[in-house]
What does this fold into?
Amino acid sequence: MSRRRRLAQSSNWQLRRSQAGELVRADLDLLRPPVSADIDLLLPAIAHGMRQRRSPLVYTAFDGDHLALIPHMRAFVLAKGCVPANPESILGYKQVVDARKTKELVLVDDLAILKQCDELWVFTSVEPTLGAVSQLAEGVLVELLFFLKRSPGRGRIKFVPIELLLGSETAIAPRAYRASFAETVRALGQDQRSVVDLVDRVRRGTGQLPEIVYVAHDPLDVKYSQWVRAHLFDEGRIPLVPYLAVELRDGSLMNAITHRSSNPDLASLGSIVECWIRLMRLAKDFWVLDRVDLGQRRSYVVQLMEHAWSATGAKARPVVKADWDDFDVPKVEHGQNWPLTERESLLR
It folds into this structure.
């Protein structure tokens, strides 16, 4: 490909990102202003471009004691031009533990996400060596062994020092983990054997890993997302709400890492939309919900997601039209009895 063509593609892609960012801004405006008279042409063009991108999907493994650093992990992955798939961001720690009850079943959900990812990045202070690997948290060991067994010889495992997320000027750069599955197993202690046994059980029954459902709803309805999560957990499936998996604030954190303005510009908002689209690779099913408060135009972002899902072609299962009435959301159940005042009732 010629340099001129590469520059033209790059320029076109930056335009698409900015256009996607404009859609997000318009959706978050309570007045819901229209963006373009050509929106019916613009949406499929943006969706097609984002589906064609080859940004690696990166699973972010970490010790649960570093839960507070998750937004920084996602932003770090974004700053490297990749798409973060953080298990806690997708599942919600309390909700998945309440639903699955045991650590082993929680890890099975984690592995269902990891199975679809291109790379594994371990955020840790542990060295990426056979002499130190046994120091990793047991959940991270399960993820590491599962990925090694599933993807031998890929060389797509990195250990990212926690200090990098904390702004340390002396932190070393991420390093690759080079050992094989067999070498890693031999490096573990006898008291860690149950980790290997769990990976073996999951590998023997990989088809039994829970299916992931992608949930597309209006950005103004994010406050109801947890009820959708709970419903899908009850069904034995994994909920993927894109707005929770990668948050809009991640764009500002990414800009800070890349030394750009900390304010979210249209391009950084568009990069978050790209992540939402790319995360569809994890899902088997696609659910779409209308706005809880009817009477406004449909979300541009939801329409963009529908176009992107349809662009997967024959592999895409039909879109499932879900209904908020199915999720026991108190505001939906109470309807006009929910507001305190008549003015609020009329607004809704």
Remarks:
- Confidence is low (pLDDT under 50) at residues 3-10.
- Residues 57-207 form one domain.
